[in-house]
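Appendix B, Record 12. Input sequence as logged:
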Amino acid sequence: MLQALNENGLGMSNPLHNLKIDYWYKAALVVGAVVLITALTVELKGVENSIVQLIALGTVLVGIGEWINHPLQTRIVPPSPRNPTWLKGEGYLRKNSALGLLFVISGVGFIGLGIWKLVV
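Logged structural output:
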């Protein structure tokens, strides 16, 4: 039996193995993508596929935009009277970027259009 090998000579694993869904925007991205793929491939009952596609695409765009707007930030704090040693802090604090905001605004627009078409 042949098996694909990676650079370490080990078998290839699932490429999504390291994807951690640990923040809401990653969950929105994954759920939106699953719903979008479903709406593109399966005929839905009770609602038009185009409406679900708009809302799901908007959700994916919001997830991508928020992921861009939450980069990993590292901060090193020097010793002080309160903390006698150096401290290193990491986190995904919000830091807006033009590209991230463009994705979020576009996503909210698609979601709004989908909801408007659903109601009207």
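Residues 24-119 form one domain.
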